Amino acid sequence: MAEFTFHTVAMSRGMIARWALHEAGADYDTQMYTWDTRPESFKAINPMNKMPTLVHHHGGHDHVVTEAAAICHYLAETHPDAGLLPDAHEKASYFRWFFFAAGPLEQAVVAKSMGWDVPEERSGMAGFGSFDLTIDTLEGWLAERQFVCGERFTMADVYVGSQVDWGLQFGTIPERSAFAAYRERINARPAKQEANAIDMAAMAETSDD
Question: What is the pLDDT along the chain (209 residues), one digit of tens a residue?
Fold first, then answer.
């Protein structure tokens, strides 16, 4: 048995977790589903029936990790030799932007995509304030750095990079030069290319059925 079992749907946030698995060099098996073929028994692992879900077979126990951002950092922690954890001086940026992407950025993008307008006088109640403020804040940071923590790629870039990559691909994040340059850098990662190829092949196979 591999050290990890990865439960996923090809066209899902599971693409983030698979990229993280490849960056970490993790030993994993995949349980691939479609949205229509998730077995009822899967809810025993993740009661929310969400993808991705990672099961770590360790020390005679099965440890379940859900939420793509948590999976990413967990893999960085369990594979320290992969060099994806932040150095001491990088921790503030690492955790700040990891949680920014998982919180304010995703909330802002989803709210805009759904047509949910936050009245200006109630923006303080929304974790992202406003879409424009959220996007401008991320742009300002990436415009001055190669990666989230500066010049070095870390696991935070898997999560932040996925949000930027998808945002530009689907038009939910505006085209800006800082985002385009960052996207080019993260898409050049061999681990991302390998992971994406697996999911793209699974999507093609599903569409042929």
Answer: 999 999 999 999 999 999 999 999 999 999 999 998 899 999 999 999 999 999 999 999 999 999 999 999 999 999 999 999 999 999 999 999 999 999 999 999 999 999 998 888 888 888 889 999 999 999 999 999 999 999 999 999 999 999 999 999 999 999 999 999 999 999 999 999 999 999 999 998 876 65
Residue 107, in any domain of the structure: yes
pTM of the model: 0.95
Together in a domain, 93 and 184: yes
Indicate the number of domains in the chain.
2
* Cβ-based neighbours of 125, under 8 Å, separated by 6 or more: 118
| Residue 59 phi, psi dihedral angles, 5° rounding | 60, 30
